[in-house]
Amino acid sequence: MSLKLCFIGAGNLATHLATTCSKAGLEIVQVYSRTEDSAKLLADKLNTAYTTQTSSLVNYADIYFVALKDSAVEQVLSGIEFGDKLVVHCSGSLPLNVLSRFAKNHGVFYSLQTFSKNRKVDFRKIPIFIEASSEENLQILKEIANTVSESVTVLNSEKRKSLHIAAVFACNFANHCYAMAAKYLETKDLPFEILRPLIMETASKAQEMHPKQAQTGPAIRFDENIINAHLNELTEMPDLQELYNSISKSIFAHHQKKQ
């Protein structure tokens, strides 16, 4: 596949996706980022050019991957002339048509994974969800997606938004709970590392059984003696106390339902 790609954005997702595409034989002709350090860092990894000005974007790329935070997409793209080139955003929550005013040919390339720049991931195992403004554009995205991943699904904007909400619960919120656990342990001079086997087993169970069946702990039976003792212990940390109480109530209410 002989396609020239340009990446608008140089953050965590752009770094992993661009690097993976490059290793798969796709040509990355330029990287854009608002900050020179980020643009240069990714461009050096890819052995390609970079710019910090949208007015200096190359006009000969076949596909422009937009890997920006959602709130920056319209502002950054508003001054760019894409002509008939394919413009693709990588957001889980933005609809396909957000790109329609910038490019006739547009699409979505959403990778369902959490990314950190310096942590390796196996892109072949990452589910990719695509959508496009035409069947021709969809086939192009499908070909690229199949080059880098073993799991490719065509999904409309509404379903993708629902998937993204679920991903926030499963990933971002779960990780925040890890952070709060670490914060609490620090006050007790205990290392977060002692929770790692528990975290691994919890995640492992989620691979083998429905999360509702895997739930344990005092909240599922609303053991008030334990819950109240924990809440009293957290009096000096009201943010954790509120979170503990809210989640405990949610767990109990969820397990009172038949389904």
From TrEMBL:
What InterPro entries does the record point to?
A: 6-PGluconate_DH-like_C_sf, DUF2520, NAD(P)-bd_dom_sf, P5C_Rdtase_cat_N, TM1727-like_C_sf
Stretches assigned to the Pyrroline-5-carboxylate reductase catalytic N-terminal domain: 4-90
Q: Which SUPFAM superfamilies match?
A: 6-phosphogluconate dehydrogenase C-terminal domain-like, NAD(P)-binding Rossmann-fold domains
- Report domain DUF2520 positions: 126-251
Q: Which Pfam families match?
A: DUF2520, F420_oxidored
Database matches in PANTHER family: CONSERVED HYPOTHETICAL ALANINE AND LEUCINE RICH PROTEIN (PTHR40459)
Q: What is this protein called?
A: NADP oxidoreductase
Organism per entry: Draconibacterium orientale
